[in-house]
Design brief:
This protein is mainly α. The protein has nine helices and no strands.
């Protein structure tokens, strides 16, 4: 997988992703005659195809590291469901509520789209943190244990399975002996 190794590379990729993030609304403003829903779906399908092409080409760039397919096999199903759910919530929020400003004010409430967008972004951030924590644990990084403990605490609120996994995570990784064992493992790696 192609990962940025310097702070400059991370900042450049962050800037590029922020540019791409707002590009669909800018492109929609350029194409005045295209219906919003059709443009949104066409842009989403094009973006998905471009992301898949980048994942299967750039994601398998270095043969000495894990490929995109290997990383997908290592990712948990729960993290994948969180990513899909967060993305679906963002799509619902933006598709159904972004054009409501053309209706009279009493028809809609303005808090629903920002609320659903915020919840969708939180779900995506939690899923990304899960992927990052899994990668950190596989690489025996020192920061991964702390991130997994935070995610384990947040999982306590997802009854019943999240609660069970959160309790187990805290039971295994929270004691001081676990901290010493994990530090020894991360130093050996």
């Amino acid at each position: 997988m192609l990962l940025p190794t310097t702070q400059l590379a991370v900042l450049l990729i962050l800037g590029l992703s922020m540019l791409a993030w707002g590009s669909w609304t800018s492109m929609f403003n350029v194409t005045k005659r295209w219906r919003f829903e059709l443009f949104y779906y066409d842009f989403a399908v094009g973006f998905l195809l471009a992301a898949l092409l980048a994942a299967f080409t750039l994601g398998s760039w270095n043969a000495r590291e894990l490929t995109f397919q290997d990383n997908m096999l290592l990712a948990s199903r729960r993290s994948m469901v969180w990513v899909l759910g967060g993305g679906a919530l963002l799509i619902v929020a933006n598709t159904f509520f972004a054009r409501w400003n053309h209706f009279p004010a009493e028809v809609h409430s303005t808090f629903l789209q920002p609320l659903l967008s915020f919840i969708g972004i939180l779900i995506l951030v939690k899923a990304a943190a899960g992927f990052l924590a899994g990668y950190g644990l596989l690489q025996r990084e020192a920061w991964a244990r702390i991130l997994v403990l935070i995610l384990g605490f947040l999982s306590l609120f997802n009854v019943p399975f999240g609660t069970a996994l959160g309790v187990y995570t805290l039971w295994v990784l929270l004691p001081a002996t676990s901290d010493e064992e994990y530090r020894a493992l991360s130093r050996a790696a």
